Amino acid sequence: MERGTKSATLADLLPLSAKLYGNAPAVRFKQGDQWVDRSFDQVLETVRSLSLGLIDLGVEKGDKVSILANTRAEWTYFDFAALSAGAVVVPIYQTNSPEECQYVLENSDAKIVVVEDEEQMEKIRAIRNQLPLLEQVVRMTGSSVDAISLEDLATQGNSRDAGEWEARWRSVTSADICTFIYTSGTTGPPKGCVISHGNYRAMLDMVNQASVVENEDLTYLYLPLAHSFALLIQFGSFDLGATLAYWERDPQKILANLAELKPTYFPSVPRIFEKIYAAASSGVEKEGGLKKAIFNWSIETGKKMRNAERAGRRPGFLLRKSYEFADKQVLSKIRGLFGGNLRLAVSGAAPISPEILRFFDAAGVLVLEGWGMTETSTAATISSPEDFKVGTIGKPFPGCEVKVADDGEILVKGPNVFQGYYKNEEATREAIVDGWLHTGDIGEIDSDGFIKITGRKKDIIITAGGKNITPANLENEIKQHPLVSQCVVVGDRKPYLVALVTLDPEDAVAYAREHGLPEDPAQLAKDPGVRKAIEAHVDTINAKFARVEQVKKVAILPRDLSQESGELTPTLKVKRAVVASKHEHEIEKLYAS
C-alpha cells in the first residue's frame, strides 16, 4: 500500500503534505487552558512566510540556521522554514549552557540563530561577541531590540513573491545537507553529524515500510526536537498526515498531558517509562496486604492473556473471567496513565528493563524498543507488534544491514548512514570503514534475527581481575526500587564493583513524610532506614549475578543527577565519565573503607 507524500527531500515534504492532507490537524498545542489545532494548510502558510523572511535576511542555500528552543510548534515551523529555504538546520538543546551554545554555533558556522524566549536570548547575548559569523538572532516569542520577532520576520516574508519560495524548495536535492545534529557528548566534545536530505528521506521510507506511525495517529511529543529521535517523529507525522501534539514544556505535566490528549502513539525514553512504572506500582507496594496481592495477580493474569493471544489460542473460560476482573481492578487503570487510547509506545536512546516492558504489556500497553544513533539518521532496527522479542532491539529496518564484528561491535550499512562529522575527517574515518558504520555498541544476533545490545564498547568495565562487565544490566535492576532515581556502577581496574545511587525526588519526599523524616534529599541520603532499604534491594539483585558481577558497596549521593550539572544528556542518558569525575571522592571512600 502506498503511504506518505513520496517527497524527494525534506524541503518539499511540507508543500506535498499540505496538498495531500489540507484541512486535517497537523499540530496540537496548549494555548491557555485549551488544546488547539493547526491544519496542514495553516502550517504551510506560516512556514512560507517565515521561510521567505529568512530568505529576505540573506539566507542562501547551504547556509546554517540554528534553533535553540524547547519542543513546541514554533520549532517545527522554523525547521520547515529553514529546510524549504535550502538551509542546513543546526539544532541546539534548550538545556545547553551559553558555552555549549557557543561551541555549536561556532563549529557549525551558523549565520542565524532562532531562540525560543528571553531565557535562551540571554545565552546568546552572553556569547554573541565571540561569534563573528552570526549575523542575525530571531525570536520565537516576545521581542527585543537585539533580535527580530517571529511576527516581524513573517511580515518581511509576506512582502516577497511566493513563487520565490517554491523555486527555492524545488532546487533542493537529496545530496544537499539537511541538518547537523550535534551528539550530546557522553565521551568528549559534541561532534556535528552531517545528515543529508537523502539520508533522512531513506529513513522515512524505512519507517513507512515498517508502519511505525499510522496515518490516523495522534502522537504526544515531549522529546527534545534537537534530538534525532524526535525529529524523525516530526517528519514521519507530516509525511503520513498524522497529528503531532506538543507537551506543555513542563516535565511535571507529562502524565497530565497524556491523560488529557489520549494519544495513540508515544515515543519516549526509558526514564519516563520507569517513572510511570513507579507511579503505577509504588502505591500498592506501600499498602501491601490484599491490595498488593490483587495487583500482582492481575499483572500475572494479564501476562497469561497476552501469551494466549500471541499463541493464537482462544483463552479458556476461567482465564477470560479472571482477566475481566483483573482489567477492571488494575490493568485498565495502568492504561489510563497513558490516556487509555495508546496503540503503541516506543522506547529508544538507552536500554530499558525487560521487567518494565512485560509489566506494561500485561496491562495492554505495548512498549517496543528500537535502536539507532544520530549517525544512522535516528534508527537502524525496529520491533513491531507482530514481530518482537522482549530484551532485544528488534530487527534491521528494510534496506538497512546490520552485522556483528569479530570483537562483538555492531556495524550498520544503509542509505540512512550519515555523511560524516563536520570538520572532523579523522573521526569520520574511524566511524565509517569500508562503508560500515562502527556504532560502539556491543551485541549479538540470535537465530531468529533479533538483535540484542549487551554493552557499550566504552562503558564496559574491566575489573582488576580482568573480567569484562556490562554495568547497564545491574543499573537497570537497581533503578527499579521506588526510592532510586539513578544508578551508576563503577569498577574499572578495581577489585570489585560499587554503585553511586541517587534518590527519586518525588518518592523520597513521600517516604520522608510517611516516616517522619526531613524532606531534604541530602539529609535523607544519610538516613539509616533509607540506606538499609536500598542495600537490601541491592543484595536481592546481587543474588541474580555471578560473584564478580555483584555490587559490593553503595554510596547514596546527596542530590539527583541533572542536565544542568552536565551529568545527564538531554535524553536523560548518564554521562559516566562526568559522574565518575564529579563524585571521585565518594568513589574513593567506597574503596578505602
Task: Give the secondary structure arrangement, pairings included.
Blueprint: H1 13-21, E1 25-31, E2 34-39, H2 40-56, E3 64-68, H3 73-84, E4 88-92, H4 98-108, E5 112-115, H5 118-127, E6 136-139, E7 148-149, H6 150-158, H7 162-171, E8 177-182, E9 192-196, H8 197-209, E10 218-221, H9 228-240, E11 243-246, H10 254-261, E12 265-268, H11 270-287, H12 289-310, H13 317-337, E13 344-347, H14 354-362, E14 367-369, E15 381-382, E16 395-396, E17 401-404, E18 409-413, E19 420-421, H15 425-431, E20 432-433, E21 436-445, E22 451-456, E23 461-462, E24 468-469, H16 471-478, E25 484-490, E26 497-503, H17 505-514, H18 521-524, H19 528-542, E27 551-556, H20 576-582, H21 584-592
Parallel strand pairs: 1-11, 3-4, 3-5, 5-6, 6-7, 10-11, 12-13, 13-14, 26-27
Antiparallel strand pairs: 1-2, 8-9, 9-19, 15-16, 17-18, 18-21, 20-21, 21-22, 23-24, 25-26
What features would you describe in this structure?
Helix content is 41%, strand content 20%. With 593 residues, the protein is α/β, with parallel strands linked by helices. The protein has a 5-stranded parallel β-sheet, sandwiched between helices. Strands 17, 18, 20, 21 and 22 form a 5-stranded antiparallel β-sheet that branches. A hairpin with a 4-residue loop joins strand 17 and strand 18. It is globular.
